[in-house]
Design goal:
This protein has helices at about 20-30, 50-55, 75-85, 95-100, 110-115, 130, 135-145, 170-185, 215-230, 255-265, 310-315, 335-345, 385-400, and strands spanning about 10-15, 35-40, 85-90, 120-125, 150, 155, 165, 190-195, 200-205, 210, 230-235, 250-255, 275, 285, 305, 325-330, 350-355, 365, 370-375, 380, 385. It is of the alpha/beta class and about 400 residues long. Strands 12-11-8-13-16-17-19-20 form an eight-stranded mixed beta sheet, sandwiched between helices. The protein is elongated and about 85 Å long. Bound molecules: cytidine-5'-triphosphate. Cytidine-5'-triphosphate binds near residues 310, 326, 329 and 341.
Length: about 400
């Protein structure tokens, strides 16, 4: 399986000789799809240059809590820690490990560690006797007990010329360990997903359109969560104001139902799963005026024609093994309509949204949905954030894979 790692990694580099391997480590992470923000301790600068790390990570390298150029600027450790999906300290010297245990925060790396709520990994690297020392052992045990993941160290040749335990795990194996720890177990890892999101706009003339109130938030939450689980996501988005910078997501912007259909149909044969969360217009004006209609020549009524039903087309054309998830937005008799759509469009799962629930549906950050499988078994979820709803939908989908 292709190794993909669409994560935001905060890489802490400390002052040990193994730091010379970190540009390679960054390259491997970036190649696997990660975004890497490097934070160095001051001592790490003696072993590897910020220029090398900034070049391979394509981001400025940070070292200081405070920018001492009289500007009054500071590097926000809280923001950096919140940005990260995972923090990796490699190499982790005995000194930094000790400071981590004792909650010291006299440099940016340590302040980030104290602020981090994401999984933290350390790849210790030091000489044999330092590693054997009771203090180091106690520190490593304390960190392990607090949930910090240990990667290595390995036994081998050390910088001192001695041979023994203390070598930093090789960059390739560090990346493997991260992927296994964070992505293994997800049936979506390595899978190709097509997700559409947002409304469509059907032009009446160059300035007016028929649209709807979809914000795209549910589809974007699904795309982010699927990418986090290691999937390659093709996100086809209608006109929305949302942004996503998560690696693993390839975004295509469309405006009309016809463009949405074209983008989705052409991608469908290559994907394992399609989730159609977009609110595609069912009707469009038969004619679009080439110029802005004047009040005087504005039509009293609009002639409409149906758009293509993308989901129904996919249901009729899906290959063996391809899974299809649709949404149903209903205002009355939700369950019956959703079940009908599930059968009619040949779906594996339908997500029923009823606008009857406060805080659910268009524009909100929360949603309240019922998941109905092909066996008609229904899982009614409580009101929760769209990110949590996305997790539950994908958990359900993983059970179908
Ligand atoms: N859908 C689609 N193409 C369309 C219209 C809808 O792919 N032209 C998809 C939506 O993305 C959603 C599902 O069909 O996943 C259900 O959409 P909805 O508007 O609720 O259902 P319709 O089939 O249009 O039925 P109705 O309007 O009668 O409720």
């Amino acid at each position: 399986m292709e190794r993909v790692f669409p994560r935001k990694v905060l890489l802490g580099v400390t002052g040990g000789i193994a730091a010379y391997k970190t540009p390679h480590l960054v390259r491997l992470l970036v190649k696997a799809g990660a975004q890497v923000q490097v934070v160095m301790t001051p001592a790490a600068h003696d072993f590897v240059t910020p220029l090398a790390l900034a070049t391979v990570s394509k981001r400025p390298v940070l070292t200081d809590l405070f920018v001492r150029d009289g500007s009054g600027l500071w590097n926000d450790h809280v923001h950096l820690a919140a940005w990260a999906d995972a923090m990796l300290v490699a190499p982790a010297t005995a000194h930094t490990l000790s400071k981590m245990v004792h909650g010291q925060s006299d440099n940016l790396l340590l302040a980030c560690y104290l602020s981090a709520t994401c999984p933290v990994f350390v790849a210790p690297a030091m000489d044999l006797e330092m590693f054997r020392d009771a203090a180091t052992r106690t520190n490593l045990d304390a960190l392990r007990e607090r949930g910090v993941h240990m990667i290595g160290p390995e036994t081998g040749e050390l910088a001192s010329g001695l041979t023994g335990e203390g070598r930093m795990t090789e960059p390739e194996a560090i990346v493997d360990a991260l992927i296994v720890a964070l992505l293994d177990g997800s049936k979506l890892a390595g899978k190709r997903l097509l997700i559409n999101a947002g409304p469509t706009q059907e032009a009446i003339d160059p300035v007016r359109f028929i649209g709807n109130r979809s914000s795209g938030k549910m589809g974007f939450a699904l795309a982010e969560e699927a990418a986090l689980r290691g999937a390659h996501v093709e996100l086809v988005a209608g006109p929305v104001t949302l942004i996503t910078d998560r690696p693993g997501i390839t975004r295509t912007n469309v405006t009309s139902a016809a463009e949405m259909a074209e983008a989705c149909r052409s991608r469908f044969p290559q994907v394992d799963v399609a989730i159609l969360a977009a609110a595609v217009a069912d009707q469009r004006p038969k004619q679009t005026a080439g110029h802005k209609l004047k009040k005087s020549d504005g039509p009293a009524s609009l002639d409409l024609e149906p758009t293509e039903d993308i989901l129904a087309w996919m249901g009729a054309n899906k290959a063996k093994g391809q899974k299809l998830v649709g949404f149903a937005l209903e205002t009355k008799n939700g369950r019956a309509h959703a079940e009908d759509k599930l059968v009619r469009k040949n779906l594996d799962l339908i997500v029923l949204n009823t606008l009857e629930d406060a805080g659910a549906g268009f524009g909100h950050d929360t949603n309240k949905v019922t998941l109905i499988g092909a066996d008609k078994n229904a899982e009614e979820l409580p009101l929760m954030s769209k990110a949590d709803t996305a997790r539950r939908i994908l958990d359900h989908l993983e059970r179908l894979l």
